[in-house]
């Protein structure tokens, strides 16, 4: 069985049409496999997952993915807004999924 520390996914968003919708649905708009299939497959390989997705992705769906893991995974979301970052990475959002145990073991910083 394939094992890794982290899996990085950058699935095709379906061309520039993703920006024409208010909310990007990872169940219906990701092709040929939906975001739920990709998440389920990747979580079998690693307990840390990074997905590069459009900024208008449905955040409720991302939370739903985390809750579907046993035990539930924590969700850390970084929004790459062009006004804030020096280097613009086409304004997309990058969700990081990680095991809650790993999250709790991280050092706390103020």
UniProtKB/TrEMBL annotation:
InterPro entries: RNA_cap_Gua-N2-MeTrfase, SAM-dependent_MTases_sf. It catalyses: a 5'-end (N(2),N(7)-dimethyl 5'-triphosphoguanosine)-ribonucleoside in snRNA + S-adenosyl-L-methionine = a 5'-end (N(2),N(2),N(7)-trimethyl 5'-triphosphoguanosine)-ribonucleoside in snRNA + S-adenosyl-L-homocysteine + H(+); a 5'-end (N(7)-methyl 5'-triphosphoguanosine)-ribonucleoside in snRNA + S-adenosyl-L-methionine = a 5'-end (N(2),N(7)-dimethyl 5'-triphosphoguanosine)-ribonucleoside in snRNA + S-adenosyl-L-homocysteine + H(+); a 5'-end (N(7)-methyl 5'-triphosphoguanosine)-ribonucleoside in snoRNA + S-adenosyl-L-methionine = a 5'-end (N(2),N(7)-dimethyl 5'-triphosphoguanosine)-ribonucleoside in snoRNA + S-adenosyl-L-homocysteine + H(+); a 5'-end (N(2),N(7)-dimethyl 5'-triphosphoguanosine)-ribonucleoside in snoRNA + S-adenosyl-L-methionine = a 5'-end (N(2),N(2),N(7)-trimethyl 5'-triphosphoguanosine)-ribonucleoside in snoRNA + S-adenosyl-L-homocysteine + H(+). It comes from the Eukaryota. GO terms for molecular function: RNA cap trimethylguanosine synthase activity. GO terms for cellular component: nucleus. It holds the Pfam family Methyltransf_15. Belongs to the methyltransferase superfamily. Trimethylguanosine synthase family. This is Trimethylguanosine synthase.
């Amino acid at each position: 069985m394939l094992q890794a520390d982290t899996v990085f996914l950058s699935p095709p968003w379906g061309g520039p049409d993703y920006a024409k919708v208010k909310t990007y649905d990872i169940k219906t708009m990701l092709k040929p496999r939906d975001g739920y299939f990709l998440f389920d497959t990747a979580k079998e390989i690693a307990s840390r997952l990074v997905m590069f997705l459009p900024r208008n992705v449905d955040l409720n769906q991302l939370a739903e993915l985390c809750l579907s893991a046993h035990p539930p995974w924590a969700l850390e979301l970084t929004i790459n807004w062009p006004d804030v970052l020096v280097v613009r990475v086409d304004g997309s959002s990058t969700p990081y999924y990680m095991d809650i145990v790993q999250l709790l073991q991280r050092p706390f910083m103020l």
